[in-house]
Amino acid sequence: MTASDSTGRDERRVTLTRDSEGRYTVRNDRGGSVTTSSGTDELSPVELLLAGIAGCTAVDVDTVTTRRAEPESFEIEVSADKVKDEQGNHLKDIEITFRVRFPDDEGGDKARAILPSLVRRSHEEFCTVSRTVMLGADVTATIE
């Protein structure tokens, strides 16, 4: 759930709880959840960040192209190099690869024609997750 106020803020929130050592469940206010951990088969927090980029840009691109044609296949791969340097641990060289196939018909032709523009606009304008990573955001931590 999002909370808008008179200033136009549109807050997003998740809450993480510890399930066991190194294993956590993240929940949103709508009841959705995902489990994360490190060193197991589950998605790590870094992989969840990459998944957030993939999911955000997928919504941007899929929503519009599907109005023209249902894709035969739709896959987005996001990769990055995890580094530790004088700035601490972080990701660099994040790459987003789209693998999208549409039928060989008029609708598919229309979807293929707008795909490059949608990918570019998602990257440059629409995708909140990748835009935040690219632009940077202040992150603060408090203890209650």
Automatic annotation (TrEMBL):
Region (Disordered): 1-41
InterPro entries xref list: KH_dom-like_a/b, OsmC/Ohr_fam, OsmC/Ohrsf
Segments crossing the lipid bilayer: none
Compositionally biased residues, Basic and acidic residues: 7-30
Gene3D superfamilies membership: 3.30.300.20
Pfam families reported in the protein's UniProt record: OsmC
Name recorded for this polypeptide: Putative OsmC-like protein
Native source organism of the sequence: Terracoccus luteus
